[in-house]
Specification:
With about 230 residues, this protein is mostly helical. Helices cover about 65% and strands about 0% of the residues.
Length: about 230
């Protein structure tokens, strides 16, 4: 039901987004900015290991392969928790986070969020899932570095030969781009959570790693319902 709900709202959002793209110069400028940033990142020949992709997905966007750029179910859940339970919770997909790091617009307004959702729908439609992940990794601003390659150089990771633990450490940095004494214990807890979720003998994650090593845009019913 979650997948059907996300799919129906995702298709509707995509149609609206393309319509606005045709009639709104401002929206089109925002889109072209994101598109240009993505094109530049995809020129890189540096290979990102599948273990890193996997670690980012399981902690940032577990329904990454089953939504169309926006996880509407997570948005409703976050709204309920934020309003009713007074518990701050995010619901942005990796596609939305890619748009955010490209536009660098983070103000808390309805117009900004709606624009982000619409742009994410188009971007997710035009790119493969792996391209979305790759662009996000290259554009993310860490404390002292822009992009994953620069982070690895500064912190002495070998990007094309990351261990399982190192991939989990880097994936956790997307929530904690700067490490301080005040957040270090939370960072370590997040690393451990990712390690548990990406344990190789977990059948769910083993299948996910296989899917990542294949064509990233697999449309089989089996994959669509795998990432619940």
């Amino acid at each position: 039901m979650i997948q059907i709900f996300n799919f129906l709202l995702g298709i509707t959002t995509l149609l609206v987004a393309y319509s606005i793209l045709l009639i709104s110069p401002k929206f089109r400028r925002n889109y072209l900015k994101v598109e240009n940033d993505i094109i530049n990142t995809l020129k890189s020949k540096v290979h990102l290991p599948d273990s890193l992709y996997k670690a980012i997905i399981v902690i940032e966007d577990k329904r990454f392969y089953s939504h169309l750029g926006v996880d509407f179910y997570s948005i409703l859940r976050a709204f309920r928790n934020n309003v009713i339970k007074n518990r701050k919770e995010g619901a942005s997909t990796l596609s939305q986070q890619l748009v955010r790091v490209s536009t660098n617009k983070r103000e808390i307004t309805y117009s900004r969020k709606i624009t982000e959702i619409l742009l994410s729908s188009i971007i997710d439609n035009k790119l493969t899932k792996k391209q979305v992940l790759t662009s996000y990794c290259w554009l993310y601003q860490f404390e002292k570095s822009l992009g994953i390659e620069s982070l690895c150089q500064i912190e002495n990771y070998t990007l094309n030969n990351l261990t399982h633990n190192e991939s989990c450490q880097i994936a956790a940095r997307f929530k904690y781009p700067s490490l301080r004494e005040s957040n270090y214990s939370k960072y370590l807890k997040r690393v451990r959570t990712i390690e548990i979720k990406t344990t190789p003998n977990n059948w769910y994650n083993s299948l996910l790693l296989i899917f990542l090593s294949e064509n990233p845009r697999i449309h089989s019913i089996g994959q669509y319902f795998l990432l619940i």
